[in-house]
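Lay summary. Proteins are chains of building blocks that fold into shapes, and those shapes determine what they do. In this project we predict the shape from the chain. Here is one chain we studied, written as its sequence of building blocks.
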Amino acid sequence: MNLDPKSLVESLTTKRHKARQALGILLLILTVVVSAPQSASLFVVGTILAGIGIMIRLWGAGHLKKDKELAQDGPYAFVRHPLYVGNTLIITGYLAAAQIWWLVPIAIAFGLLYYPPAIRKEDSKLRKRFPEQWEAWGTKTHALIPKLQPEGELNIHNWSFSQSLRANGEPIIAAFLILGLVVMGSRIFG
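And here is the predicted shape, written in a compact code that computers can read:
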């Protein structure tokens, strides 16, 4: 593996989809490690935002049946990419809880570098795999800005814990995210 700076930058910009998850996890770990919360109220607000993001990810992953059918119910009735919405709330919440402001531009750069290409790629893939369904749903449903009224059925009963676990390992990820919040909270409340 070539580790010179030029090839590293090229790899990160051309193979974004492969690096996105690893770098996102590293960003969250870095946030926990360097966190220095001073304001209890800001920590609580951050924890609430991150908690909402975690719940959105769990909800979305429990409706996701990758490459088998187009998810249009649950959170997908509000927004095309609820997992990215959840991620955005999680990192925003972590940054507010950690209160390390020099990480904010890094997180913004991460989001701008990785999410737009990932959304284009996923939308293109879904449009090709499910053309009629995608056109009817995807053209009415925004990528990241949720609607106030769902586009279709919520089908709350279709959510599955085992599907959430199989789709992305969400319950395990949620447990680690909560642990990170506990570690940061111990610095202000401990």
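What the prediction tells us: The chain has a mean pLDDT of 89.
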